Protein backbone atom coordinates (compact mmCIF):
# COMPACT_ATOMS: atom_id res chain seq x y z
CA UNK A 1 0.00 0.00 0.00
CA UNK A 2 1.16 3.54 -0.69
CA UNK A 3 -0.10 7.04 0.05
CA UNK A 4 -0.15 10.51 -1.47
CA UNK A 5 1.57 13.35 0.36
CA UNK A 6 0.50 16.90 -0.57
CA UNK A 7 2.37 20.07 0.37
CA UNK A 8 0.54 23.40 0.08
CA UNK A 9 1.70 26.97 0.64
CA UNK A 10 -0.44 28.96 3.08
CA UNK A 11 -0.37 32.22 4.96
CA UNK A 12 -0.95 32.37 8.70
CA UNK A 13 -4.58 33.33 8.05
CA UNK A 14 -5.14 30.38 5.75
CA UNK A 15 -3.18 27.53 7.36
CA UNK A 16 -5.45 26.52 10.21
CA UNK A 17 -8.66 26.89 8.24
CA UNK A 18 -7.18 24.87 5.38
CA UNK A 19 -5.91 22.17 7.75
CA UNK A 20 -9.34 21.75 9.34
CA UNK A 21 -11.02 21.69 5.95
CA UNK A 22 -8.61 19.05 4.63
CA UNK A 23 -9.31 16.76 7.59
CA UNK A 24 -13.03 17.21 7.06
CA UNK A 25 -12.61 16.40 3.36
CA UNK A 26 -10.82 13.11 3.97
CA UNK A 27 -7.12 13.71 4.70
CA UNK A 28 -5.56 10.97 6.86
CA UNK A 29 -3.35 13.50 8.65
CA UNK A 30 -2.44 17.17 8.39
CA UNK A 31 0.45 19.17 9.85
CA UNK A 32 1.65 22.79 9.62
CA UNK A 33 5.32 23.77 9.35
CA UNK A 34 7.31 26.99 9.08
CA UNK A 35 8.02 27.52 5.38
CA UNK A 36 11.23 29.36 6.32
CA UNK A 37 12.60 26.63 8.63
CA UNK A 38 16.38 26.32 8.37
CA UNK A 39 16.88 29.82 6.96
CA UNK A 40 17.65 33.21 8.47
CA UNK A 41 13.92 33.97 8.37
CA UNK A 42 13.01 31.02 10.59
CA UNK A 43 10.52 32.12 13.25
CA UNK A 44 10.69 31.31 16.98
CA UNK A 45 8.87 28.28 18.29
CA UNK A 46 5.50 28.65 19.98
CA UNK A 47 5.38 29.94 23.53
CA UNK A 48 9.05 30.88 23.90
CA UNK A 49 9.39 33.10 27.00
CA UNK A 50 9.65 36.75 26.07
CA UNK A 51 8.45 36.30 22.51
CA UNK A 52 5.14 37.53 21.04
CA UNK A 53 2.49 34.81 21.16
CA UNK A 54 1.92 34.52 17.41
CA UNK A 55 -0.38 31.62 16.64
CA UNK A 56 1.34 30.61 13.40
CA UNK A 57 4.29 31.55 11.26
CA UNK A 58 3.88 34.21 8.59
CA UNK A 59 4.52 31.73 5.75
CA UNK A 60 3.49 28.13 6.27
CA UNK A 61 3.57 24.72 4.65
CA UNK A 62 0.50 22.56 5.12
CA UNK A 63 1.33 18.86 4.70
CA UNK A 64 -1.55 16.42 4.17
CA UNK A 65 -1.53 12.66 3.71
CA UNK A 66 -4.14 10.88 1.57
CA UNK A 67 -4.95 7.32 0.59
CA UNK A 68 -3.51 6.09 -2.68
CA UNK A 69 -6.95 6.05 -4.31
CA UNK A 70 -8.04 9.49 -3.10
CA UNK A 71 -8.96 12.12 -5.70
CA UNK A 72 -6.58 14.73 -4.32
CA UNK A 73 -7.52 17.48 -6.78
CA UNK A 74 -11.20 17.17 -5.92
CA UNK A 75 -10.47 17.07 -2.19
CA UNK A 76 -8.27 20.18 -2.37
CA UNK A 77 -10.96 22.03 -4.32
CA UNK A 78 -13.60 21.05 -1.75
CA UNK A 79 -11.36 22.01 1.19
CA UNK A 80 -10.38 25.36 -0.28
CA UNK A 81 -14.01 26.24 -0.94
CA UNK A 82 -14.93 25.26 2.62
CA UNK A 83 -12.09 27.41 3.95
CA UNK A 84 -13.17 30.35 1.81
CA UNK A 85 -10.34 30.77 -0.69
CA UNK A 86 -8.99 29.34 -3.95
CA UNK A 87 -6.73 26.31 -4.09
CA UNK A 88 -3.15 27.42 -3.26
CA UNK A 89 -0.05 26.16 -5.04
CA UNK A 90 0.70 22.55 -4.13
CA UNK A 91 2.75 19.49 -5.04
CA UNK A 92 1.92 15.79 -4.72
CA UNK A 93 4.43 13.07 -3.87
CA UNK A 94 3.92 9.32 -3.63
CA UNK A 95 4.81 7.75 -0.28
CA UNK A 96 5.63 4.07 -0.73
CA UNK A 97 4.84 1.31 1.76
CA UNK A 98 7.82 0.78 4.07
CA UNK A 99 8.84 -1.09 7.16
CA UNK A 100 9.01 2.25 8.92
CA UNK A 101 10.68 0.93 12.09
CA UNK A 102 13.52 -0.74 10.20
CA UNK A 103 13.82 2.18 7.80
CA UNK A 104 14.07 4.70 10.64
CA UNK A 105 16.59 2.61 12.55
CA UNK A 106 18.72 2.20 9.44
CA UNK A 107 19.04 5.98 9.22
CA UNK A 108 20.57 6.27 12.70
CA UNK A 109 24.01 4.77 13.21
CA UNK A 110 26.35 5.46 16.13
CA UNK A 111 27.69 9.02 15.87
CA UNK A 112 31.26 9.84 16.86
CA UNK A 113 31.28 13.30 18.41
CA UNK A 114 34.89 13.48 19.57
CA UNK A 115 37.83 11.26 20.42
CA UNK A 116 36.10 10.02 23.56
CA UNK A 117 32.37 10.56 22.94
CA UNK A 118 29.84 8.54 20.94
CA UNK A 119 26.04 8.76 20.73
CA UNK A 120 24.62 5.25 20.37
CA UNK A 121 21.03 4.27 19.45
CA UNK A 122 19.74 1.41 21.59
CA UNK A 123 19.65 -1.05 18.68
CA UNK A 124 23.43 -0.71 18.06
CA UNK A 125 26.41 -2.02 19.96
CA UNK A 126 28.98 0.58 21.03
CA UNK A 127 31.85 0.72 18.49
CA UNK A 128 34.29 1.72 21.27
CA UNK A 129 33.56 0.18 24.64
CA UNK A 130 36.20 2.35 26.32
CA UNK A 131 34.61 5.61 25.15
CA UNK A 132 31.88 7.68 26.80
CA UNK A 133 28.81 6.21 25.10
CA UNK A 134 25.54 8.12 25.41
CA UNK A 135 22.53 5.86 24.86
CA UNK A 136 20.04 7.95 22.96
CA UNK A 137 17.31 7.07 20.47
CA UNK A 138 15.72 9.53 18.03
CA UNK A 139 12.31 10.42 19.37
CA UNK A 140 9.95 13.25 20.23
CA UNK A 141 12.61 15.74 21.39
CA UNK A 142 15.43 17.42 19.48
CA UNK A 143 19.00 16.37 20.20
CA UNK A 144 20.60 13.14 19.00
CA UNK A 145 24.03 14.41 17.95
CA UNK A 146 23.19 14.20 14.25
CA UNK A 147 22.68 17.96 13.81
CA UNK A 148 25.73 20.26 13.64
CA UNK A 149 24.42 22.51 16.42
CA UNK A 150 24.20 19.60 18.87
CA UNK A 151 27.63 18.29 17.87
CA UNK A 152 29.20 21.71 18.36
CA UNK A 153 27.75 22.01 21.86
CA UNK A 154 28.88 18.50 22.78
CA UNK A 155 32.37 19.23 21.49
CA UNK A 156 32.53 22.43 23.54
CA UNK A 157 31.52 20.54 26.68
CA UNK A 158 34.07 17.84 25.95
CA UNK A 159 36.90 20.35 25.74
CA UNK A 160 35.84 22.67 28.59
CA UNK A 161 34.32 20.65 31.43
CA UNK A 162 37.07 20.43 34.04
CA UNK A 163 35.01 18.75 36.76
CA UNK A 164 32.49 19.84 39.36
CA UNK A 165 30.72 22.55 37.32
CA UNK A 166 27.04 23.39 37.67
CA UNK A 167 25.44 23.32 34.22
CA UNK A 168 22.09 24.61 32.92
CA UNK A 169 20.89 23.42 29.51
CA UNK A 170 18.14 25.83 28.40
CA UNK A 171 15.98 24.35 25.66
CA UNK A 172 17.17 20.89 26.61
CA UNK A 173 15.17 18.80 24.13
CA UNK A 174 16.31 15.21 24.61
CA UNK A 175 18.55 16.23 27.53
CA UNK A 176 21.68 15.20 25.65
CA UNK A 177 23.78 18.21 26.68
CA UNK A 178 23.01 17.97 30.39
CA UNK A 179 23.63 14.21 30.31
CA UNK A 180 26.90 14.62 28.43
CA UNK A 181 28.06 17.34 30.86
CA UNK A 182 27.61 14.89 33.74
CA UNK A 183 29.43 12.15 31.85
CA UNK A 184 32.32 14.59 31.34
CA UNK A 185 32.48 15.27 35.07
CA UNK A 186 30.16 18.19 35.80
CA UNK A 187 29.06 18.31 39.43
CA UNK A 188 25.38 18.77 38.60
CA UNK A 189 23.28 19.53 35.55
CA UNK A 190 19.69 20.45 34.85
CA UNK A 191 17.68 21.24 31.75
CA UNK A 192 14.71 23.43 30.87
CA UNK A 193 12.27 23.11 27.98
CA UNK A 194 8.88 24.61 27.12
CA UNK A 195 7.68 21.23 25.83
CA UNK A 196 6.42 18.83 28.55
CA UNK A 197 7.15 15.88 26.25
CA UNK A 198 10.79 16.99 25.99
CA UNK A 199 11.06 17.18 29.77
CA UNK A 200 9.69 13.63 30.07
CA UNK A 201 11.99 12.35 27.32
CA UNK A 202 15.02 14.00 28.91
CA UNK A 203 14.21 12.41 32.28
CA UNK A 204 13.95 9.00 30.62
CA UNK A 205 17.25 9.52 28.79
CA UNK A 206 19.00 10.49 32.01
CA UNK A 207 17.82 7.28 33.68
CA UNK A 208 18.91 5.24 30.67
CA UNK A 209 22.39 6.74 30.96
CA UNK A 210 22.58 6.26 34.74
CA UNK A 211 23.03 9.95 35.58
CA UNK A 212 21.14 12.23 37.94
CA UNK A 213 19.94 15.23 35.95
CA UNK A 214 16.86 17.31 36.69
CA UNK A 215 14.60 18.71 33.98
CA UNK A 216 11.96 21.43 34.31
CA UNK A 217 9.40 23.52 32.52
CA UNK A 218 10.39 27.23 32.43
CA UNK A 219 8.27 28.32 35.40
CA UNK A 220 9.99 25.77 37.62
CA UNK A 221 13.56 26.65 36.62
CA UNK A 222 15.96 26.87 39.60
CA UNK A 223 17.08 30.45 40.23
CA UNK A 224 20.60 29.86 41.60
CA UNK A 225 23.25 31.01 39.09
CA UNK A 226 25.31 28.25 37.49
CA UNK A 227 28.85 27.96 36.17
CA UNK A 228 27.85 27.11 32.58
CA UNK A 229 24.70 28.04 30.68
CA UNK A 230 24.28 26.26 27.37
CA UNK A 231 21.40 26.92 24.96
CA UNK A 232 21.01 25.18 21.62
CA UNK A 233 17.78 26.63 20.26
CA UNK A 234 17.26 29.28 17.53
CA UNK A 235 18.41 32.83 16.99
CA UNK A 236 15.13 34.64 17.67
CA UNK A 237 14.50 32.89 21.00
CA UNK A 238 18.14 33.43 21.95
CA UNK A 239 17.75 37.16 21.35
CA UNK A 240 14.63 37.31 23.51
CA UNK A 241 16.15 35.15 26.24
CA UNK A 242 19.40 37.12 26.59
CA UNK A 243 18.51 38.80 29.93
CA UNK A 244 17.15 35.55 31.38
CA UNK A 245 20.17 33.47 30.35
CA UNK A 246 22.55 36.17 31.57
CA UNK A 247 20.89 36.18 34.99
CA UNK A 248 21.21 32.38 35.15
CA UNK A 249 25.00 32.55 34.74
CA UNK A 250 27.28 33.50 37.65
CA UNK A 251 29.94 36.21 37.31
CA UNK A 252 32.98 34.73 35.53
CA UNK A 253 30.73 31.86 34.42
CA UNK A 254 30.52 30.77 30.82
CA UNK A 255 27.75 30.76 28.23
CA UNK A 256 27.48 28.62 25.10
CA UNK A 257 24.92 29.43 22.39
CA UNK A 258 24.06 27.46 19.27
CA UNK A 259 21.23 26.98 16.79
CA UNK A 260 22.57 30.10 15.08
CA UNK A 261 23.15 30.48 11.35
CA UNK A 262 26.57 31.90 10.53
CA UNK A 263 25.04 35.06 9.06
CA UNK A 264 23.23 35.69 12.38
CA UNK A 265 26.35 35.58 14.58
CA UNK A 266 26.88 39.34 14.86
CA UNK A 267 23.26 39.92 15.89
CA UNK A 268 23.48 37.37 18.70
CA UNK A 269 26.85 38.63 19.91
CA UNK A 270 25.43 42.16 20.10
CA UNK A 271 22.46 40.94 22.16
CA UNK A 272 24.74 39.32 24.76
CA UNK A 273 27.57 41.88 24.76
CA UNK A 274 26.10 43.78 27.72
CA UNK A 275 26.93 40.85 30.00
CA UNK A 276 29.48 38.65 28.25
CA UNK A 277 32.76 38.77 26.41
CA UNK A 278 31.48 36.48 23.67
CA UNK A 279 32.65 35.40 20.24
CA UNK A 280 32.37 32.67 17.63
CA UNK A 281 33.82 29.41 18.93
CA UNK A 282 33.34 27.10 15.94
CA UNK A 283 31.06 26.72 12.91
CA UNK A 284 29.95 23.68 10.94
CA UNK A 285 27.81 23.39 7.81
CA UNK A 286 26.60 26.99 8.10
CA UNK A 287 25.73 26.72 11.82
CA UNK A 288 27.63 28.60 14.51
CA UNK A 289 28.42 28.01 18.17
CA UNK A 290 29.27 31.05 20.32
CA UNK A 291 31.00 30.95 23.68
CA UNK A 292 31.68 33.68 26.22
CA UNK A 293 32.54 34.57 29.79
CA UNK A 294 30.34 36.73 32.01
CA UNK A 295 31.98 39.93 33.19
CA UNK A 296 32.00 40.73 36.95
Automatic annotation (TrEMBL):
Q: Which residues bind S-adenosyl-L-methionine?
A: 150, 171, 193, 232
The record's GO CC annotations read: cytosol; ribosome
- Where does this protein reside within or beyond the cell? Cytoplasm
Q: Does the keyword Methyltransferase apply?
A: yes
- The yes or no answer to whether the keyword Methyltransferase is present is yes
Q: What Pfam family is a match, any one?
A: PrmA
Q: What's the Enzyme Commission number for this chain? A: 2.1.1.-
Give the record's GO biological process terms.
methylation
Question: Where is it mostly found?
Answer: cytoplasm
- Catalyzed chemical reaction(s): L-lysyl-[protein] + 3 S-adenosyl-L-methionine = N(6),N(6),N(6)-trimethyl-L-lysyl-[protein] + 3 S-adenosyl-L-homocysteine + 3 H(+)
An annotated Gene Ontology molecular function: protein-lysine N-methyltransferase activity
Annotated keywords: Cytoplasm, Methyltransferase, Ribonucleoprotein, Ribosomal protein, S-adenosyl-L-methionine, Transferase
| PANTHER family assigned to the protein according to its UniProt record, in alphabetical order | ELECTRON TRANSFER FLAVOPROTEIN BETA SUBUNIT LYSINE METHYLTRANSFERASE
> What is the official name of this protein in its record?
Ribosomal protein L11 methyltransferase
Amino acid sequence: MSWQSVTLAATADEAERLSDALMEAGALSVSIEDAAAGTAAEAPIFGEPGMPADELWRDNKVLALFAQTADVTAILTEAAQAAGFTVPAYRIERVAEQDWVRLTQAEFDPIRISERLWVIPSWHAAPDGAAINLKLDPGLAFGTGSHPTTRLCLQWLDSHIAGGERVLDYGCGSGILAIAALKFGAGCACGVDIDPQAVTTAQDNARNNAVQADFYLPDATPTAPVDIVIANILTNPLLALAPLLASACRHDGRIVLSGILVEQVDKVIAAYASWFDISLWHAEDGWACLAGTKRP
